[in-house]
Structures are given as structure tokens and as C-alpha cells.
Amino acid sequence: MKKSFFGYLIFFIALNVFAQKSDVVSVLKNDAGIKLMVNEKPFMINGMNWDYFPIGKNYEFSLWNQSEEFIKKALDDEMSLLKNMGVNTIRVYTGIQPKWITYIYENYGIYTMLNHSFGRYGVALNGVWTPITDYRNPETQKVLVSEVTEMAKTYKNTPGLLLFLLGNENNYGLFWAGAETEDFPDDENQKRLMGEERGRPMYKLFNEAALQMKAIDTNHPIAICNGDLLFLDMIADECKDVDILGVNMYRGASFGDAFEKVKNELNKPILFTEFGADAFNALKDTEDQEMQAFYAVENWKEIYYNAAGVGNANNAIGGFTFQFSDGWWKLGQTKDLEVHNTGASWGNGGYKLDFKKGIHNMNEEWFGICAKGPTNSDGFYKLYPRAAYYALKKIHEFNPYKNGVSEKSIEKYFCTVNIKRALKKAKKDQLELEKINKN
Question: For residue 157, which of 37, 41, 23, 27 has the smallest C-alpha distance?
Fold first, then answer.
């Protein structure tokens, strides 16, 4: 039977609407534990903190302000490497347009967790930039809630969007004066006082924002990003409508009691929004890929141990390794942008392989799973995978939600993650980069 033009039009409109339908993402709690579900299937986030900064650029550079041709090539170069590594989700800050979230998903099968900093580095009030955010201020509250609800409206039907993340260790921002990482104050009374005075209003605002975003978008969970578990009791009190606790956690080879504490005190899924190790050994004063890979392997093993159904805390839904490529601008932020600085900005005794009391050992410019090559005349650069890249590729091939998975079977699989073999694979990349840098 001959179809009318109108019939064909309706068919193609319906087909397009179906093709653009976003996923339904939810948090499931049952006797087995807590899982993230995508279209009713369990989803372990094998994530990566990802950005795009050519050497010589800093936070003022935005990939999303470049030409379409530039953005497409940059994405094609890096998403192909991420896909090969087994990464299924990237963490990206606001600024990315919805079409690029969909482009990444449709071409590489990689989801995006969209991150609004929620005043972490300041807020614009009446057209004036205010570097220190006071969450008690009614105008600040109005601006931040307005920004994230607008984000929910803009992105809610975007194919490839996995979830929303609010903040970036904003509880630490209550103490630090700027964006650059600093040593944390030791005085417990000072921490608590600041928490009650400035932190509790912040967590209340997180919850209010989550409620208003959920009124707009019911398909994507809302997570917050906390610095470790500081003020977990306040989160339990004030963030009852937040779906997921995201944590930036740098404790060394083990996350310790984090899984059990979150289970017992919060009963929400834990998502590691940042974790990992740098690839520079502060004691040996040289690059140390083996050390970085060791910490990555140990951290991911614990995440899988605590996935739902394995038999431990059953509340880990994944993590985002920090980070995909070196950030040459991180130390100093506005100076020496073309120098790969080896200075460490803070000390952490959890990273015992290069820690000595009294020295800083966390090298902010060396956290890349890939080393970064020089910027060419077109503004692009090449990445050179380190040993951690190849170790993580092997790790992400494992599905902790398979039937019959136990801590014993995870341990057995991780015995096949050979760091020495990963080092051999990375050696070719390292030699190529060293040759380029000499010329």
C-alpha cells in the first residue's frame, strides 16, 4: 500500500525521537547491596578524570571554545585511547556542550558525569566575582541553585549523560584560600568550628539543589563531591536527598574504613570521584611509573571488593582515576606553564613508597595516566601511555557484577594484572617521548 508523505514524516520524527532518547539511570538498593543501574542493568563506573590542556595553557583555556574541527580531532585522539583502556565514563566540568557529550557516547560508548563546581572556586554575585564562597549568603544560595537547575534543564535529555556531580571537595575549600592544593590544617577543633559555621549551610544547600534538580530531571542521579569523609555526619544530617556520595580520596594503597563508614553512617553508594597517585618519586627525584601503577591496582581492587554482591560493604559503584594526562600548569597555576615542574605541593604519608617525614611527596603535575607530548603548530599534542594505563586496561576488562564473583575470584583475577608487563608495554611510549623532547 502506498504511504502518504505525512505518514513518512511521522515515521522519521518518531525514529529521531527514539534515537535521541536519554538513558534511565538510577540507584538500586536491595539485599545484595547498592548498585548504579543504567536501563535496569548494573553499571560499574570505570571512570577517568579527563580534561584537555595543551602544554603552555592553564585553566583559562577551554576546549569547548575552540572550533568544531579542533574539538572533534581532540576528542577523537583521546576518546579512542580511553575506549581502548576500558574507560566507560569520564568526569567533565560544565562548559561542554550537550552535543559533545552525545558525540563521545555515540562514537566511543563513553558516558559523561557532568560536574558543576558549586562555588568551589568562587561565585559571581551581581556581576562581581567573589573568590571565597559563603554558603550562608542568600544571594550566593540563589545564584548556585539557579545555575544547577539551569544545567539540569539544559542537559536532562542528552544521550550519553550518566549523572550530575555537584562540587569538588568543597569542604576543603572552607579552609583553603584558592584552587591550588595545600596542606590541610591539623587542629580538630578548628575543623569542627569551621564545619559548623560554614560547612553545614553548604551541605544544606547541596540538598536543596538536589531536590530542585530532581524536580526537573528524574533520569539522572545527583552526586556531591566531598574531600574524603570530613563532615560525614553533617552529610548524613543535611543531604538526605542526594543520591550518591562522591569522594576525592588520597589515602595511598588502601581506602581503609571508607566503605564501612559510608555504609554505617550514610547508607548511600560511594563513588570515588578522584583517587590515584602521581608518577614522580619525590625521594628518588625521578619519574616512577611502577609506583603509580601499584597504587592504581590496589585502589581498584578494593573498589571491586566492595561492589554489591561480593560480600563486603557492597556499596562501591566505581571511581574516576585521577587523571588521564599530566597537568603542566598545576603547580603555580599561572607561571612556568611550559615547564614540567617536579616540586610537590603537599605531603601524604599514605603513599609510603616515596614518603619521608618532613617532605612533600604529592606532585600535582605528574598524575597523568598518560604523559603529555609537546604542542604542535595546530595546537594539538600526543599522549604517551604510562604503565598504569596498561594495568588499568586489564583491570577494566573484569566485571564485578558477573554471577559468582567473590573476593577470592577478584583476588585471583588481579594476580593476572602484571605491572612488570605493563612497564614493558609503556617503555616504547616513554622512549619515543624522550626522543621527541631531546630534539
Answer: 23
